[in-house]
Amino acid sequence: MAAGEADHEAVMRGIGWLASQQKPDGEWEEMPYNAVGFPRVFYLRYHGYRLFFPLMAMSRFRNLRQGNSREVAWGF
Q1: Residue 39 falls inside a structural domain
Q2: Does residue 3 sit within a domain?
Q3: What is the distance in angstroms between the CA of the first residue and the CA of the last residue of the chain?
Q4: Between vectors from CA 24 to CA 19 and to CA 28, what angle results, nearest 5°?
């Protein structure tokens, strides 16, 4: 989407996968940890990542598809 390809088949498949993985309560599952601190010593968990990033991708997709432009105006 950041490359101006909101209509690309790969984007559609990714958004479809996110939607299919969403639980009935609106959340997504995640592994027990999602970032490495020191391997085999400690691992990090960012509690908001499982909600923030899927929602950001899905809302960006919706906004690009409904807007006048298919290009991301700002941000990553």
Answers
A1: yes
A2: no
A3: 10
A4: 55
Over residues 15-43, the pLDDT tens digits come to: 999 999 999 999 998 877 666 677 777 77
- pLDDT grade for 75, boundaries at 50, 70 and 90: low
Q: Against a cut of 0.70, is the pTM above it?
A: yes
Does 4 map to a domain? Answer: no
Q: Which two tokens stand for residue 51?
A: 């909600």
Total domains in the chain come to: 1
Contacts of 54 (CB under 8 A, 6+ apart): 18, 22, 28
Residue 1: how many other CB atoms lie within 10 Å: 19
Mean pLDDT of the 49-73 span: 85
28 token code pair: 């997504």
Q: Which domain holds residue 46?
A: 9-66
**Other Cβ atoms closer than 10 A to 5:** 13
